[in-house]
Design goal:
Layout lengths: L3 E2 L17 H11 L5 H12 L3 E2 L11 E3 L7 E3 L7 H23 L9 H22 L3 H37 L6 H16 L3 E2 L21 H19 L2 H13 L5 H8 L7 H20 L1
Parallel strand pairs: 1-5, 2-4
Antiparallel strand pairs: 3-4
Helix pairs in contact: 1-2, 1-3, 1-4, 3-4, 3-8, 4-7, 5-6, 5-7, 5-10, 7-8, 7-10, 8-9
Length: about 300
């Protein structure tokens, strides 16, 4: 039997679907997917994306990746490196648009000292948009190849966000605890603790490389203390809110806008409770794990 190696975890189960989507088409897809949020949200985001909110394409000397930024008095700003042959980049556009609209509503409903929201809340607004886009594209998929790719991508993203980021958070908690108890954080100790977690999270069937534990030294978010767990909580809240908004009515939609408009005026837990999700309870995380399970079941059937 062929060995299951560490690098096998990151190999896609299916080939990338071939689909070309230019910028205007991507904006149309995102706009259609977010239509449950109403005209003001969609028209504001659409006008911005077709206008001057985004630095769209790769360029010489430009940094990689994508982000949303801005200030209290100006328009949101999105950096993209958009590729027309990448469906994933359409999701990135929806994600960054979620951040930008969160900032847009926060700045217009709070005084300057209270408009800036926490990272705990930020990842909710962005992954909420991705979830609505995923559900829209799956319904519109015109081939088994595209549907399979979308479901596999969603499962991969949940694995990376809900599962792997939780492992990262556990590593961070362990290493902080060691430092606080007076244990020197040598390379050997850091690698050893990270290797224990790889073995714990991926199980005995996976064959680790001698260098697999070096991964724990290259994660940049570890240098911003206790950042990583917010991805796992954010996606859990986003999935719960997507269900609530899409299956609900005007009240559920307005509850979500209460969250977007809160800015930094409430504690994050209170802000999300106003939207209709209680992150002090394990229920949203358990529900997110159930979503992952359903995606895996569907993948098994399709493959």
């Amino acid at each position: 039997m062929q060995e299951f190696r560490h690098y096998d975890v990151y190999a896609p189960l299916v080939s990338a679907a071939k689909k070309t989507t230019n910028w205007n088409e991507a904006v149309n897809l995102v706009s259609n997917a977010l239509s449950p949020l109403g005209d003001e949200y969609v028209s504001t985001l659409r006008t911005g994306l077709l206008g001057r909110w985004a630095d769209r394409y790769e360029n010489k000397g430009k940094r990689s990746g994508a982000f949303s930024s801005g200030c209290f008095t100006g328009d949101p700003y999105i950096l993209m490196n958009y590729k027309e042959d990448s469906i994933r980049d359409v999701f990135t556009l929806a994600h960054e648009g979620g951040h930008s609209m969160h900032s847009w509503y926060s700045a217009r409903n709070n005084p300057f000292p209270h408009y800036n929201y926490t990272i705990f809340e930020a990842e909710v607004a962005s992954t909420f948009n991705e979830e609505l886009l995923f559900r829209y594209l799956v319904k519109q998929a015109d081939s088994k190849e595209l549907r399979l790719y979308l479901i596999n991508k969603h499962a991969d993203d949940l694995l990376a966000t809900l599962y792997r980021q939780t492992m990262f958070a556990e590593f961070e908690k362990i290493t902080h605890g060691l430092e606080e108890s007076g244990v020197p954080l040598t390379v050997e100790i850091l690698r050893g603790e990270y290797r224990k977690l790889l073995e714990k999270y991926f199980g005995p069937e996976m064959k680790l490389e001698d260098t697999s534990d070096l991964e724990g030294l290259r994660i940049p978010h570890f240098y911003r203390a206790f950042y990583v767990y917010k991805y796992a909580t954010g996606v859990s809240a986003a999935l719960a809110l997507a269900d609530r908004v899409l299956s609900g009515g005007e009240k559920e939609r307005q509850d979500y806008f209460t969250f977007l408009k809160s800015g930094g005026s409430r504690f994050p837990i209170q802000s999300l409770k106003a939207a209709g999700v209680d992150m002090s309870s394990p229920n949203p995380v358990n529900a997110a794990c159930a979503v992952f399970g359903k995606l895996v079941d569907e993948l098994e059937k399709m493959l």
